[in-house]
Design a protein that fits this description.
alpha+beta, 25% strand, elongated
């Protein structure tokens, strides 16, 4: 029998779990892309980076909110 494997981001995925793994991979790539683009953004008064929050029940219905963080 021919062996068929599914891999997402170099991780083997079971066929029954492929939808969840694809969604996770998309969210991770979006998170990493946002972080890379905003890596130099800082509050001019506190020099603290912003917090980006993604909310929603699925990729299609998600929305984002950004806010500054209080200095530690």
């Amino acid at each position: 029998m021919i062996k068929v494997e599914f891999k997402i981001n170099r991780r083997t995925v079971r066929p029954s779990d492929i939808a969840n793994q694809l969604e996770r991979a998309m969210f991770e790539q979006v998170r990493d892309g946002i972080a890379q683009k905003l890596q130099n953004v800082r509050d001019p008064e506190t020099d603290v980076e912003p917090t980006i929050t993604m909310m929603g029940r699925s990729w299609i219905t998600s929305r984002s909110r950004s806010r500054g963080r209080q200095p530690s």
